[in-house]
Design goal:
Elements (H helix, E strand, L loop, with lengths): L1 E4 L1 E4 L2 E8 L15 H30 L1 H14 L2 H14 L3 H17 L4 H21 L14 E5 L4 H6 L5 E6 L7 H9 L3 E3 L4 H4 L5 E5 L4 E4 L3 H22 L15 E6 L4 H7 L4 E6 L13 H14 L4 E5 L26 H7 L1 H14 L4 E6 L5 H20 L9 E6 L2 H5 L1 H4 L5 E4 L1 H9 L17 H16 L3 E4 L9 H8 L3 E4 L1 H12 L3 H12 L4 H9 L4
Parallel strand pairs: 3-4, 4-5, 5-6, 9-10, 9-16, 10-11, 11-12, 12-13, 13-14, 14-15, 15-16
Antiparallel strand pairs: 1-8, 2-6, 3-7, 7-8
Helix pairs in contact: 1-2, 1-3, 1-5, 2-5, 3-4, 4-5, 11-13, 12-13, 13-14, 19-21, 21-22
Bound molecules: phosphoenolpyruvate and magnesium ion.
Length: about 575
């Protein structure tokens, strides 16, 4: 039995055998071949193996998940046999004498771009299918060993160096009971995705991947941040009890689903959910969210080979707005850079990506990318209650430029006779200390603030949010952070604006009493944190929390603030 400590990233307890997920390199290089007949045979062999795999996955999916899900694999089989794809690949090998992986990859990419540019959502989805099928055949051609996380079909705990957000999005909750990684922090994007999938997770363990063997029984305790490898029977029993108690607590919270969020002394605040994909909206609604407080649109740009076009984006935004049925939806414009890369953007490597060319900085430079997103958003605006938010704003000039571009696109759409809502609030994320300090000036021009503490804390403390070695400096309760938060909220209220928070701190039960006391209007968090937060707020008096917050602001260390909060009698 071995205990490893990491960072609790998503609550709950999972007990299952380990499944090590390691990433292959799909890079394809162009190689000339002398014997094209042999190359064609190699292609045929890879196709046959892929067919056999798909047949058995289809069968298993049919048994376990039903006909509808199995259809996906039936359509993959059709692609594998489609002469429209295969003939040009075979021709390329025969005529241009290139290797099979190059011929396949190049042809498939042409189809993928073509599908992505189609108007119909159905054909756009075909692009994703084509991408999956191509990867499957490439695995055989390149001799890679890899299991797509979406295909895991027995109960496991995934163990990895790190998980990309798109890996995390593909995990099937039915089988993946939990995950644990070597690197990452509570606010790394895979951890955020784990919370939206409601899968227990422990990240930042440094070496769990090296310590564990495939099939070892492991426990992931996402409440405490521990991983236990090969536990003895007594420990398993103890953790089963802990898991069951947590599940009972969740059931109790569910009773609050339809209730408003009100403090003990009757003050209403808004509890919203953070989402990364349109599918996450169900989680927000299931957990009684009153709004979407942060839609991280960058996930729409990830896991593909080129920019999502206006139609792809329009469909996604429209879906979210419609599913929220008129409740507010704060959509954040593209925040790429930092720990979120887009391989097809081909950006130069930076020394300090979190301090570099990211988010609105990139969008103001690549106005082609930005305008496409703004157009899609404006077109979708008539389907619900849209609010647009710019990330990583450091200066008023940046905000003014971003807003001017938005207005320009709006005017163009109206001139084209396309309807746009007249009622779109435009706000900014406060993630940079300079913006928090100058919030009184920003408040005169923006409709709202949403405090992004994940970044605000890392920039204020100069401690990389991804680096577990400096995680001791990542202090949400440090009075310096609380003072910045207060400045932002007070500045908003002075100008009659609202202030929300969409960093992870908003759903943190130690921070919530302080934030309520500081006057935060909207708390946006992982869907699974909404009901525990509602339960907690209903037991707190806003007036008392105002006093508590005033005391916290005068403390000198984070520890003293924590002690103050712990002393609250509920
Ligand atoms: C934040 O910085 O707090 C935030 C919500 O944005 P992200 O975590 O996506 O950087
Ligand atoms: Mg951020």
């Amino acid at each position: 039995m071995l205990n490893i400590t990491g960072i609790a990233a998503s609550s709950g307890v999972a007990i299952a055998p380990a499944f090590k997920l390691e990433h292959p390199d799909f890079t394809v290089t162009k190689r000339e071949v002398a014997d094209s007949a042999a190359e064609l045979a190699r292609l045929e062999d890879a196709l046959t193996k892929s067919r056999q795999e798909l047949e058995s996955i289809k069968e298993r999916t049919l048994q376990e998940l039903g006909e509808k899900k199995a259809e996906i694999f039936a359509s993959h089989l059709l692609i594998l046999d489609d002469p429209e794809l295969l003939t040009p690949v075979q021709d390329k090998i025969a005529n241009e004498k290139v290797c099979a992986e190059f011929a396949l990859n190049e042809t498939a990419q042409e189809f993928i771009s073509m599908f992505e540019n189609m108007k119909s959502a159905y054909l756009q989805e075909r692009a994703a299918d084509m991408r999956d099928v191509t990867k499957r055949v490439l695995i055989h051609l390149l001799g890679l060993s890899y299991v797509n996380p979406a295909e895991i079909s027995k109960e496991v705990i995934v163990v990895a160096e790190d998980l990309t957000p798109s890996d995390t999005a593909q995990l099937n909750r039915k089988y993946v009971k939990g995950f644990t990684t070597n690197i990452g922090g509570r606010t790394s994007h895979s951890a955020i995705m784990a919370r939206s999938l409601e899968i227990p997770a422990v990240v930042g363990t440094k070496d769990v991947l090296e310590q564990v063997k495939d099939g070892d029984l492991i426990i992931v305790d996402g409440l405490e941040g521990t991983v236990i490898i090969n536990p003895d029977a007594e420990t398993v029993k103890q953790y089963e009890a802990k898991r069951d108690a947590h599940l009972r607590q969740i059931k109790e919270w569910r009773l609050l689903r339809e209730e408003p969020t009100t403090s003990k002394d009757g003050v209403h605040v808004e509890l919203a959910g953070n989402i990364g994909t349109p599918n996450d909206v169900d989680g927000v609604n299931d957990n009684g969210g009153e709004a979407v407080g942060l839609y991280r649109t960058e996930f729409l740009y990830m896991g593909r080979t080129e920019m999502p076009n206006e139609e792809v984006q329009f469909n996604a935004y429209k879906t979210v707005l419609e599913r929220m049925e008129g409740k507010p939806v704060v959509v954040r414009t593209l925040d790429i850079g930092g720990d979120k890369e887009l391989p097809y953007l081909d950006m130069p490597k930076e020394m300090n990506p979190f301090l570099g060319f990211r988010a609105v900085r990139l969008c103001l430079d690549r106005t082609d990318i930005f305008s496409t997103q703004l157009r899609a958003l404006l077109r979708a605006s008539v389907y619900g209650n849209l609010r647009i938010m710019f990330p990583m704003i450091a200066t008023l000039d940046e905000f003014r430029q971003a807003k001017a571009l938005l207005m320009e696109e709006k005017a163009k759409l109206i001139a084209e006779g396309i309807e746009v809502s007249d009622n779109i609030q435009i706000g900014i994320m406060v993630e940079i200390p300079a913006t928090a300090v100058l919030a009184d000036q920003f408040a005169k021009e923006v409709d709202f603030f949403s405090i992004g503490t994940n970044d605000l804390i890392q920039y204020t403390m100069a401690a990389d949010r991804m680096n577990e070695r400096v995680s001791y400096l990542y202090q949400p309760y440090n009075p310096s952070i609380l003072r910045l938060v207060k400045m932002v909220i007070d500045a908003a209220h002075k100008e009659g604006r609202w202030a929300g928070m969409c960093g992870e701190m908003a759903g943190d039960t130690t921070a919530i009493p302080l934030l309520l006391g500081l006057g935060l209007d909207e708390f946006s968090m992982s869907a699974t944190s909404i009901l525990p937060a509602r339960s907690l707020i209903s037991k707190l008096s806003k007036a008392e929390m105002e006093e508590l917050a005033a005391q916290a602001l005068q403390k000198s260390t984070a520890q003293e603030v924590v002690e103050l909060v712990r002393a609250i009698k509920l």
